């Protein structure tokens, strides 16, 4: 094992402690290597004296958790989750709920309009019965235009719903991650 | 010293580190050499120990210039560390006296 590998392994083993502490620890070892080199030692000799990264990291982690009992780890996981859930609940109620309802009602309204437009030619039948053939033709052809618009709108709404569904699912997943405490590096 | 309990070893090392630094401010490498001359220890584990003692306020650090290479991190003992060390020494002396006594009696008894 050479110096680079030593540092690489040590750094990986220490990834659960804060970056600042990790950097300080690694710089202590950096200093140790520098002085060792000045005294004419080889990388192998120095590593031999230091011991393997596993032993060192065990020591570091044990000390770290002994002096930082408030670490956000399994023991306090439940409390943290509850707090996160409460925080999210308020955030969702105050910030997210209003816009979400607005977007959803606009979405439903557009869907309704689309369906209405598509079936609008049917309305020309009662007009025909009431007012004769010419008004029927006029209503029928103008409603065909509406029907076309309705079909296009419908296609657009399919895309919109896909997007909304995707956004909603991602947002819910984000919420769950925050509560469970994943995605923390 | 490989057979002794790890916790025991850690406690004794802590005492040695404090005593050595109380004698003379030193940097990590120097301390590691001084200790490993007499006690078999993975030198790398001294650094976590030094960090902990510093965090607990028993040691303080400062950067000292060196004739070769970059400045070195020196450790010196604090007043709090001094008191702590004295308590540890008293405990250790009482403890080792008792252990010596037991060994002497035990071994002597076995030979009779």
Automatic annotation (TrEMBL), chain A:
UniProt-listed Pfam families: HAAS (PF22564)
Highest taxon in the source lineage: Bacteria
UniProt lineage: Bacteria, Bacillati, Bacillota, Bacilli, Bacillales
Keywords: Membrane, Transmembrane, Transmembrane helix
Record has Transmembrane as a keyword: yes
Transmembrane segments: 82-101, 107-129, 136-157, 163-180
Annotated protein name in UniProt: DUF1700 domain-containing protein
């Amino acid at each position: 094992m050479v110096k680079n590998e030593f540092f690489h392994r040590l750094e990986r083993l220490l990834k659960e402690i804060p970056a600042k502490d990790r950097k300080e620890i690694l710089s202590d070892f950096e200093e140790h290597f520098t002085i060792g080199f000045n005294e004419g030692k080889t990388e192998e000799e120095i590593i031999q004296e230091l011991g393997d990264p596993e032993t060192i990291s065990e020591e570091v982690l044990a000390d770290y958790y002994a002096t930082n009992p408030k670490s956000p780890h399994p023991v306090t996981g439940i409390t943290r989750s509850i707090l996160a859930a409460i925080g999210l609940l308020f955030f969702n109620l105050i910030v997210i709920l209003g816009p979400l309802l607005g977007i959803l009602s606009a979405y439903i309204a557009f869907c309704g309009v689309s369906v209405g437009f598509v079936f609008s030619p049917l309305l020309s039948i009662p007009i025909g019965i009431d007012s004769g053939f010419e008004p029927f033709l006029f209503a029928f052809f103008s409603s065909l235009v509406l029907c076309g618009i309705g079909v296009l709108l419908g296609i657009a709404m399919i895309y919109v719903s896909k997007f909304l569904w995707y956004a909603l699912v991602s947002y819910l997943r984000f919420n769950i991650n925050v509560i469970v405490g994943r995605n923390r590096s | 010293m490989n057979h002794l309990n790890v916790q025991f070893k850690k406690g004794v090392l802590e005492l040695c580190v404090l005593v050595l630094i109380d004698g003379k401010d030193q940097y990590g490498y120097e301390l590691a050499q001084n200790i490993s001359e007499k006690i078999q220890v993975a030198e790398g584990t001294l650094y976590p120990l030094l960090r902990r003692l510093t965090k607990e306020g028993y040691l303080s650090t400062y950067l000292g210039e060196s004739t070769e290479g970059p400045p070195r991190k020196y450790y010196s003992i604090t007043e709090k560390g001094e008191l702590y060390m004295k308590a540890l020494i008293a405990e250790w002396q009482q403890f080792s006296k008792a252990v010596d006594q037991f060994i002497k009696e035990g071994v002597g008894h076995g030979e009779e």
